[in-house]
From TrEMBL:
The gene is ansA. Pfam families: Asparaginase_II (PF06089). This is Asparaginase. InterPro entries: Asparaginase_II.
């Protein structure tokens, strides 16, 4: 039996313009939900089944809080993060581990260099090797470990899909998206990864962004929107979008995924079929504009120039939205 083809019903969502020619085209799927949950825009197939990758982290954080994870808002933002491993990120992860009686050696995520070039340079020049601490998912893994400690579960096998933590997180993903988890695999960091649909991912972000005060969903929304630097880092578009749009909850994911929820209940989700990160900010900005955000606020963040000899000679442009 062949695997479902995510590209089967994809449509052009961004064009790469160099000079006066379209040089290449990115295909994908986009869904924009109105505040009442109806579909405001659908490009491609909004019900396409996807691996949402790190865009699932806010949903997983909701599940950890429900299981008793005890963190402050900066730590919670790191649990939701694909961080740069700048010093401030690493310090928060160390603190979360320490408060739970854990060590860096307890992390089981794949060792890697910091995403931030300056942090990576400093890490390497001080003689450090690739580390689970500086891999961009270390906040999520620290949260998983701490949740297991406070729930009284084993920590050595916390990445097993049969571990009670992962069973609960799978159920949380299904509940928030409204879509049964039909596929499970292993994410790049080593954690179990659960399937959903693009529309389901948008619904989950809408639920988080509009959650009532006092709920764990609202805690996640508050942590991300009030501490956007902790969710990504210096210069990252996820951080910049949340800094620019009050109350926005946004999370990028590998292989061309992006999702965002607005405090009025609008939400968007994006999947670029070729997996490229290049058009993601452009497409997210166009989708948020369709959802009602001022395009002038979004334009500087979504701007993705095409360079020739180091200078702009074109741009990546969305095929939809106010500027299309």
């Amino acid at each position: 039996m062949s695997a479902p083809d995510v590209g089967a019903h994809a449509v052009p969502v961004a064009r790469v313009v160099r000079g006066d020619l379209v040089e290449s085209v990115h295909h994908g799927h986009v869904v924009v939900l109105a505040p009442d949950g109806s579909v405001r825009l659908a490009l491609g197939d909004p019900d396409v089944v996807v691996w949402a990758r790190s865009s699932l982290k806010p949903l997983q954080a909701v599940g950890m809080l429900r299981l008793g994870l005890d963190v402050d808002d900066e730590e919670l933002a790191l649990v939701c993060a694909s961080h740069n491993a700048e010093p401030g990120h690493v310090d928060v992860v160390r603190g979360l581990l320490s408060r739970a009686g854990l060590r860096v050696d307890d992390l089981r995520n794949t060792p890697d260099w910091p995403l931030d070039p300056e942090a990576a340079f400093e890490w390497r020049t001080t003689g450090q090797a690739r580390s689970s601490l500086t891999q961009n998912c270390s906040g999520k893994h620290a949260g998983m470990l701490a949740t297991s400690v406070w729930a009284g579960w084993s920590t050595e096998d916390y990445l097993s899909s049969a571990h009670p933590l992962q069973v609960a997180l799978r159920d949380t993903v299904a509940a928030l998206t409204g879509v049964p988890v039909e596929h499970t695999t292993v994410d790049g960091c080593g954690a179990p990864l659960f399937s959903t649909t693009l529309a389901g991912l948008a619904r989950a972000f809408a639920r988080i962004a509009t959650a009532r005060p006092g709920t764990v969903e609202q805690r996640v929304a508050r942590a991300m929107s009030q501490h956007p630097w902790h969710v990504a880092g210096t210069g990252r578009d996820a951080t910049r979008f949340m800094q620019a749009v009050p109350g926005l909850v946004a999370k990028d994911g590998a292989d061309g995924v992006y999702a965002a929820g607005l405090p009025d209940g609008g939400a968007v989700a994006v999947k670029i079929v070729d997996g490229s990160p290049r058009p993601r900010p452009v497409v997210l900005a166009a989708a948020l504009a369709v959802a009602g955000v001022d395009p002038a606020v979004l334009a500087p963040i979504g701007a993705t120039p095409v360079l020739g000899h180091g200078s702009p000679v074109g741009a990546v442009v969305a095929t939809f939205g106010p500027d299309a």
